[in-house]
Write a structure and sequence with these properties.
The structure is a single chain. Among the domains are: about 150 residues, no CATH class; about 180 residues, no CATH class. Helices cover about 45% and strands about 10% of the residues. It is built from 15 helices and 8 strands.
């Protein structure tokens, strides 16, 4: 029995001994599988994290793009609304003038000229263009109850001015031939200070231009006219006799350039085209075309004018340049001190009384001649300042031979207007007062030139007449 027990014990011990390695192997296999599962789980989590991050980024990017596109579309339609409302306001100017006429007659003793409602468009259209700012004024008027008004999540700003308040350098709409060339030459030469003994513009014409050439005033005058006139001869302007003639070829200089080209021999289509003309470099551009960046109203020249200047709208410097193209011998044109008095006096009068002074061109001519009734501008200034006040400029004498021509060179109405409207939407950050300080996600600017002249007719073979809201000369979206 002992032997049997021993044998049994030995067999059990052998089985237990033989089980241990197997159990160890099984345990090791289970632990190995657990390690692999952990690695798989970590890998899966990493992949999911990457997928989630990519999904978050792509979703956020798509949302930002969608929001920007939404705000861009809002901004564009805000700009379009501001443009169309401004055109509607200009079309309604005759009705507005009828309402104002009794008050103007009581003040000036004569009917009013065309009212510059376009300059007040940004203020008058504020409930449409900037509803939130209008509500902040607390006027007591609930604009939101009116149709078409209310929360827009956007705004628009309007800058509008008359093109005949500038010096025209393009082919004039109402003149042709030598008369057109002579008119533009005289205006350009006067604008650049050519009729003054000493002009502040003299340094512009005493250095080499961008092509390494010396370009004086007469060269610039000839180059601008040759760009749009229809012949191939170079224009020669004689300021002493106020005459133009032709001599040589107008393309010689341009053909000698490294990248040669010919003159256009057609009217300019945009202000940027002036850059291609000899003598119109950065200095000329910064002085006459864009003296104040991002302020289109500050420019002195235009390519959309008829050749006549509006004394109610034009800056005093532009009026002076147009006058001095005819009156170069007068102290007002030859003496810088007299010119400064004219500029300062007219600027001050406009700041004190923001109304158009001249109902007719004859009223303006009476002003520069120092005559008129007690309610005309020059006698009124004499009453305020004293007849012998040194601040008053010396009146001019208009020769009988040029009076009719000067009369035709000025108008008191505006028919071609520049309207710049900027639409904005989606403010990124607001301050504590509700003002946008972080910029806008969507911003669109419409640069347009609109013609409202009632004598306009479409080019043949089309037929029709001027639409109520005018026709576009120029339309650009930025």
């Amino acid at each position: 029995m002992l032997s049997a027990f021993a044998a049994s014990s030995d067999s059990h011990g052998f089985r237990r001994a033989s089980r241990r390695p197997r159990v160890a192997r099984q345990r090791s296999a289970r632990e190995g599988r657990r390690g692999v599962a952990l690695i798989i789980a970590i890998t899966a989590l990493a992949i999911l994290a990457v997928l989630l991050a990519d999904l978050h980024q792509s979703t956020g990017t798509s949302f930002a793009i969608a929001a920007t596109q939404r705000d861009q579309l809002r901004a564009e339609y805000m700009a379009r609304s501001g443009l169309n409302l401004t055109r509607l306001l200009v079309a309604a100017e005759p009705n507005i003038r009828q309402v104002v006429t009794p008050y103007y007659v009581a003040l000036a003793g004569r009917p009013p000229p065309m009212l510059p409602v376009w300059r007040m468009a940004d203020s008058l259209l504020k409930p449409f263009c900037d509803y939130e700012a209008t509500q902040a004024l607390q006027t007591g008027i609930d604009f939101g109850s009116a149709q078409g008004l209310g929360e827009t999540n956007g705004r628009c700003t309007i800058v509008s001015f008359a093109e005949n308040a500038k010096i025209n350098v393009n082919a004039p709409l109402n003149f042709s031939g030598d008369r057109a060339r002579r008119s533009i030459a005289m205006q350009l030469f006067a604008m650049m200070g050519g009729y003054q003994v000493e002009s502040r513009y003299d340094p512009l014409f005493q250095q080499r231009d961008r092509d390494g050439q010396f370009t004086n005033r007469l060269d610039v005058v000839s180059s601008i006219i040759d760009w749009w006139d229809f012949d191939l001869d170079r224009t020669v302007f004689d300021p002493g006799r106020a005459e133009v003639s032709s001599s040589g070829s107008e393309d010689d200089l341009y053909r000698r350039l490294d990248d040669p080209y010919d003159t256009k021999n057609a009217p300019l289509d945009s202000l940027e085209e002036l850059r291609m003309i000899r003598g119109v470099g950065d200095d000329f551009w910064a002085t006459f075309v864009e003296p104040t960046p991002n302020d289109p109203d500050a420019r002195i020249v235009t390519i959309y004018g008829s050749g006549a200047v509006n004394p109610n709208e034009a800056p005093p410097e532009v009026i002076l340049a147009r006058l001095c193209s005819y009156l170069e011998g007068q102290p007002l044109c030859s003496d810088p001190a007299e010119a400064a008095k004219f500029v300062q006096l007219l600027s001050t009068a406009r700041s004190l009384v923001p109304l158009p002074f001249f109902s007719r061109v004859s009223d303006f001519l009476a002003f520069i001649e120092g005559r008129g009734g007690p309610r005309d501008l020059y006698p009124m200034l004499q009453g305020f300042l004293g007849a012998d006040n040194p601040l008053l400029f010396r009146p001019v004498t208009i020769p009988a031979g040029v009076r009719t021509e000067i009369d035709n060179s000025f108008v008191t109405a505006a028919r071609i207007l520049t309207i710049h409207v900027t639409g904005q939407s989606g403010c990124r950050e607001m301050d504590e007062f509700g003002e946008c300080v972080g910029g806008y996600r969507g911003e669109v600017r419409l640069n347009t030139v609109v013609n409202f002249h009632e004598l306009w007719t479409p080019p043949p073979p089309n037929a029709g007449r001027m639409p109520g809201l005018g026709v576009f000369h120029y339309y650009r979206v930025e």
